[in-house]
């Protein structure tokens, strides 16, 4: 669907065939990003990876992230940290279960994903001293500002007017100042205590800031480049994993037969253990199906970050001019009734039939009806990090506890709030009972 939103020509892609044309056939022509005053402020001139225009700088940042920060080996190095944070969360739930008290699971899961990401990025949890609350404020407000309606995005000439830019970006500037204060503090702490280069290269657990400081001169990164990447990691890593966990638990409570089946699988495989560990996860096929189905119905980013065409292209018989904003409607792709049987129902089994068959969609970007992490040049590099976080936590929630709605609550409100990510609006309150 080709529209004109304000002064900007915009293409909305809602079919798998058109998505393939944009994200695979003509990926090179649609790999750039729309210039935005808001992202320029929050991401230090859009020098991060998510919002940087396609070009040499983006390719360099992408290489750094894929090779040094989010490689499979690097994600694996945080295994003990993930398991430690899971045990901390289980202890908090067990305290509530001992009192037969309800748990604000949304708040707990948000804290869990925050602590996981903060450990990976800075080497420490942000618990205590009010830093966790500040961090959540920065992530949530930044997400809202990026994903909200910004007039200058649809009338770009307005962004060239200083008075408009100051008015539109005033709140973003205040948030950026808070990001600056937080990031400068933790970067300075690391700079004082940086490991020697040979120690970093030995392959031990080093956080993102350690790595970025160790390669800063090699890649000619400014401090603002480093901070832009860190904001990317903080925002992209916390909200997405939290939303998937929160929605998965909400769906499981509303589908008790699925909940029972998942608990049986997890408890059978990890029977007799203190907790589910990462080596147990490979055999949990139904767990993986539940997570994939959650990603289908509740993608944290149902409308992809807009792409920008940099040359004229033919899509489905139509010429799409250079300078067109392209919005991939992942929500529509994942609910296409021509492809998905009973598209609105929560059915993890759809990802398990004929296990090993190429007909079963994966989340690697190979099936254009199912793109929870995107695909092509702009595919999400944090896929492995996010899935590792979600799998270990959901498995342990199933392993240690039974779950019920509080007395008097009949139904979970699935209404969503909108930002650059989309999650449930109301907190999920559940009553755990320990086994």
UniProtKB/TrEMBL annotation:
- Similarity comment text for this entry: Belongs to the cytochrome P450 family.
| SUPFAM superfamilies (alphabetical) | Cytochrome P450 (SSF48264)
> What InterPro entries does the record point to?
Cyt_P450, Cyt_P450_CS, Cyt_P450_E_grp-I, Cyt_P450_sf
What pathway does the annotation place this protein in?
Answer: Secondary metabolite biosynthesis
> Which Gene Ontology terms cover its molecular function?
heme binding; iron ion binding; monooxygenase activity; oxidoreductase activity, acting on paired donors, with incorporation or reduction of molecular oxygen
Residue positions annotated to bind heme are 380
Q: Which PROSITE patterns match?
A: CYTOCHROME_P450 (PS00086)
Extract the Pfam families matched here.
Answer: p450
Full protein name? Cytochrome P450
- List the Gene3D superfamilies hit by this protein, alphabetically: Cytochrome P450
The organism's lineage is: Eukaryota, Viridiplantae, Streptophyta, Embryophyta, Tracheophyta
User: Could you tell me which CDD domains the record lists for this protein?
Assistant: CYP71-like
What does the record give as cofactor?
heme
């Amino acid at each position: 669907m080709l529209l004109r939103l304000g002064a900007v020509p915009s293409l909305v892609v809602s079919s798998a065939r058109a998505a393939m044309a944009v994200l695979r056939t003509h990926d090179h022509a649609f790999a750039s990003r729309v210039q935005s005053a808001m992202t320029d402020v929050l991401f230090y001139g859009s020098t991060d990876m998510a919002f940087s225009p396609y070009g040499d700088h983006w390719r360099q940042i992408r290489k750094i992230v894929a090779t040094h920060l989010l490689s499979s080996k690097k994600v694996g190095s945080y295994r003990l940290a993930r398991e430690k944070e899971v045990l901390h969360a289980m202890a908090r739930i067990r305290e509530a279960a001992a009192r037969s008290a309800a748990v604000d699971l949304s708040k707990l899961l948000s804290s869990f994903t925050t602590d996981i990401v903060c450990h990976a990025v800075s080497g420490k949890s942000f618990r205590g001293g009010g830093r966790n609350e500040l961090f959540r404020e920065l992530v949530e407000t930044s997400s809202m500002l990026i994903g909200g309606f910004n007039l200058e995005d649809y009338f770009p000439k307005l962004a060239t007017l200083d008075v408009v830019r100051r008015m539109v970006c005033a709140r973003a500037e205040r948030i950026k100042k808070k990001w600056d204060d937080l990031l400068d503090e933790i970067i300075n702490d690391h700079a004082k205590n940086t490991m020697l280069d040979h120690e970093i290269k030995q392959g031990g657990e080093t956080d993102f800031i350690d790595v970025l400081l160790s390669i800063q001169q090699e890649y000619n990164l400014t401090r603002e480049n480093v901070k832009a990447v860190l904001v990317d990691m903080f925002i992209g890593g916390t909200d997405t994993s939290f939303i998937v966990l929160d929605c998965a638990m909400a769906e499981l409570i509303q589908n008790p037969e699925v909940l029972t089946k998942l608990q049986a699988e997890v408890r059978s495989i990890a029977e007799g253990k203190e907790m589910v560990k990462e080596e147990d996860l490979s055999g949990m096929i139904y767990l993986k199906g539940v997570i994939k189905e959650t990603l289908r119905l509740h993608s944290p980013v149902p409308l992809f970050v807009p792409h920008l065409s940099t040359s004229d292209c033919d899509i489905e018989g139509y010429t799409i001019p250079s300078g067109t904003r392209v919005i991939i409607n992942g929500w529509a792709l994942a609910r296409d009734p021509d492809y998905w049987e009973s598209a609105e129902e929560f059915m993890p089994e759809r990802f398990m039939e004929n296990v090993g068959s190429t007909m079963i969609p994966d989340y690697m970007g190979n099936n254009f009806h199912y793109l929870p992490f995107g695909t092509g040049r702009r595919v999400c590099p944090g896929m492995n990090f996010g899935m590792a976080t979600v799998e270990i936590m959901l498995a342990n929630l199933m392993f240690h506890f039974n779950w019920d709605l509080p007395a008097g609550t009949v139904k979970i409100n699935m209404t969503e709030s909108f930002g650059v990510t989309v999650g449930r609006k109301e907190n999920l309150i559940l009553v755990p009972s320990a086994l």
